[in-house]
């Protein structure tokens, strides 16, 4: 591995960084919302199955592409290509992932800014600045711009410092902090009145719903979004992994951590909804649909925290700090994709590339903020419902159909010499070649 590129200094460093990328608002904000709106425990069951049966194989494909290529997404894919048309195809897929990551970060930074604004609101309340506290949680243009800029500044600061001193160092700090806050909040919420009903809805599935098409589409989309697939992120993270590491176990560990934290997030937010309902907050409409939808954490939960009095200030502060940390561990990975491309393909200094690309994405965020009523949902839909599944599917096509089988086996054997005789090698190549592309395509077509 080139010294100039940098790399993860340890196995735990990669696991924390990759899990941090996977564990973001998609898990702690998106997963519980999707669960509440798609049949509760039935959605959880389908999500768990699809995460390991479709998302994990695609996740492994992206990691292998990156470690084989030891470069950014475009270069790594082109190294696998033998013919000119394959190299052109590789550029489209690799650069498409970079564009997808940039678009996600452009709207992600806005939502993360809201999380930060809700985190500082209790602080202003405690010090007696009630008017400022009210302003920071109001949908105001200046407020949205201020916190979006602040969040993007933090993301740029970390990425400017590189892989080991930036991504790895901060992931090791932020991930344990996030997990500790999540567990403490769960312990508090599940002991409140109404939480038992929420646990019942979350943990007792209605098996008759598991084959509903809309539920399947939502669950697969959630699995792909939460694992950062189709964004070039895992390709570039894979390129920073030592050739001595066992990718099969590493990929499984990251997937398991991601799914576990999504499950824990649901264990916090679903019972919290029912606690709020027990205190008179309207959660569901008469037809059983979720009232708040994607704005759940900004409507239902603050109302719940307000009902707790002084204790609610501290609980609310801890919760939105948790959300902000989760957002930051994901945003740094999204920015690394385009930065690595600029550094390696155009010989830009890392600090200059990070600042320039960060500013370009911030400008897109500002355009979205100014036109937030229609652009926020539009950009999110283009990037997550269309971009991610297509790029992830094409990565599977590359590994299954373009990458020569012997080269693929030799790459997996690095760090895992006995893999050729394992169940993984007997199943995964065929699965990635046929099942994953077809299944993802079917879900994508249905979503249209």
UniProtKB/TrEMBL annotation:
SUPFAM superfamilies: SNF-like. The keyword Transport applies. The keyword Membrane applies. GO terms for cellular component: membrane. Pfam families: SNF (PF00209). It is found in: Membrane. This is Sodium-dependent transporter. It comes from Thalassomonas actiniarum.
């Amino acid at each position: 591995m080139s010294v100039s590129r940098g790399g993860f200094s340890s196995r735990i460093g990669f696991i924390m960084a990759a899990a941090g990328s996977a564990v973001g608002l998609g898990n702690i904000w998106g997963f519980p919302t999707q669960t509440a709106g798609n049949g509760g425990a039935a959605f959880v069951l389908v999500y768990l199955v699809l995460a390991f049966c479709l998302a994990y194989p695609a996740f492994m494909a992206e990691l292998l592409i990156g470690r084989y290529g030891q470069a950014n997404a475009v270069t790594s894919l082109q190294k696998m290509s033998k013919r000119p048309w394959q190299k052109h195809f590789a550029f489209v897929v690799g650069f498409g992932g970079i564009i997808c990551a940039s678009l996600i970060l452009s709207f992600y930074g806005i939502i993360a800014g809201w999380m930060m604004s809700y985190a500082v609101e209790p602080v202003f309340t405690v010090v007696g600045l009630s008017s400022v506290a009210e302003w920071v949680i109001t949908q105001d243009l200046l407020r949205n711009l201020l916190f979006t800029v602040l969040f993007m500044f933090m993301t740029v600061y970390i990425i400017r410092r590189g892989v080991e001193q930036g991504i790895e160092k901060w992931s090791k700090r932020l991930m344990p902090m996030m997990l500790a806050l999540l567990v403490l909040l769960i312990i508090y919420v599940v002991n409140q009145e109404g939480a038992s009903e929420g646990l019942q809805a979350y943990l007792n599935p209605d098996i008759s719903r598991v084959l509903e098409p809309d539920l399947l589409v939502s669950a697969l989309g959630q699995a792909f979004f939460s694992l950062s697939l189709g964004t070039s992120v895992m390709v570039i993270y894979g390129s920073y992994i030592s050739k001595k590491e066992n990718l099969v176990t590493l990929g499984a560990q990251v997937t398991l951590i991601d799914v576990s934290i999504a499950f824990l997030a649901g264990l916090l937010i679903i019972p919290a909804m029912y606690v709020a309902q027990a205190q008179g907050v309207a959660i569901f409409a008469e037809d059983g649909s979720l009232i708040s939808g994607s704005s759940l954490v900004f409507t239902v939960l603050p109302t719940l925290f307000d009902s707790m009095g002084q204790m609610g200030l501290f609980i609310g502060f801890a919760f939105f700090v948790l959300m902000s940390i989760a957002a930051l561990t994901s945003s740094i990975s999204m920015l690394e994709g385009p930065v690595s491309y600029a550094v390696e393909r155009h010989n830009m200094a890392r600090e200059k590339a990070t600042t320039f690309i960060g500013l370009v994405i911030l400008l897109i965020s500002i355009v979205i903020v100014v036109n937030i009523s229609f652009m926020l949902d539009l950009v999110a839909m283009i990037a997550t419902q269309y971009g991610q599944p297509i790029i992830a599917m094409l990565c599977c096509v590359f590994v299954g159909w373009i990458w020569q089988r012997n080269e693929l086996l030799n790459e997996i054997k690095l760090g895992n010499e006995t893999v050729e005789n394992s169940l993984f090698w007997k199943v995964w190549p065929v699965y990635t070649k046929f099942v994953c592309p077809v299944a993802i395509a079917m879900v994508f077509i249905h979503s249209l």
